[in-house]
Design brief:
This protein is mainly beta and 211 residues long. It is built from one helix and 17 strands. It is elongated, with a radius of gyration of 19 Å.
């Protein structure tokens, strides 16, 4: 999965928001990429050869990578694709931390502990490697406990999605008179669900930069 920012000023009329795409093929020199979709309008973004793109992707370990590329050409087989030159490894910026982008967000999360305990809560922050949520202290949670969770994601475009995962409680912090803050790390999550969360976080980060 790729997250793409075209070379355009955010204040310019008609400037696109975050674009999302994916690599469908590659050879020794080029990546072949689906036509990017604008997450705000849900429309395909018209891209021409020579356009400059800032491309971000995350490895499975959560390391963020970024590089700038110019569209080399368009490939038209059964579907149209962008032809993007592979960057020189020295031109790829890499975060030194092995961690996912994390953003503050109040999202609804459904939690299951064992067969009998189920409750809903609101997240405090979310990221590609885990989440934290606040819940009533009556619930029997503690560090090292395993939970099954369903997270409701609301995107800027109005689209709604769910991400399902199993997680381990890393830490519990008492907050407010009757609540705990539970900090979780993912233990078992499908790539597609993890990408949904990363997409949400990246979208939020772009919104804040524009503000």
């Amino acid at each position: 999965m790729l997250y793409i920012q075209p070379h355009a000023m955010p204040s310019e009329p008609g400037s696109p928001g975050m674009l999302r795409s994916r690599v469908t093929d590659a050879d020794d020199l080029f990546f072949y990429v689906d036509i990017p979709m604008d997450e705000q309008t849900r429309r395909l973004h018209r891209t021409q050869p020579g356009d400059e793109l800032r491309i971000t992707y995350f490895t499975a370990e959560g390391v963020k990578h970024q590089f700038v590329a110019h569209v080399h050409a368009m490939r038209k087989d059964s579907i149209s694709q962008l032809v993007v030159p592979k960057p020189n490894p020295d031109d790829i910026s890499r975060e030194q931390r092995r961690s996912f982008l994390r953003v503050e967000a109040q999202l609804e999360i459904a939690v299951r502990l064992g067969e009998k305990v189920r409750f809903t809560a609101l997240t405090d922050d979310v990221g590609g490697g885990g989440v934290s949520f606040r819940c009533d202290r009556k619930w029997p949670i503690a560090p090292n406990i395993k939970l099954s969770c369903w997270l409701l994601l609301n995107y800027k475009s109005g689209a709604v999605s769910h991400a399902q995962f199993d997680a381990e409680i890393v830490r519990i912090v008492p907050v407010e008179p009757h609540h705990n803050l539970a900090m979780l790390r993912f233990m078992d999550i499908q790539d597609a669900d993890q990408q949904k969360i990363i997409r949400y976080c990246f979208e939020k980060q772009l919104e804040r930069r524009k503000d």
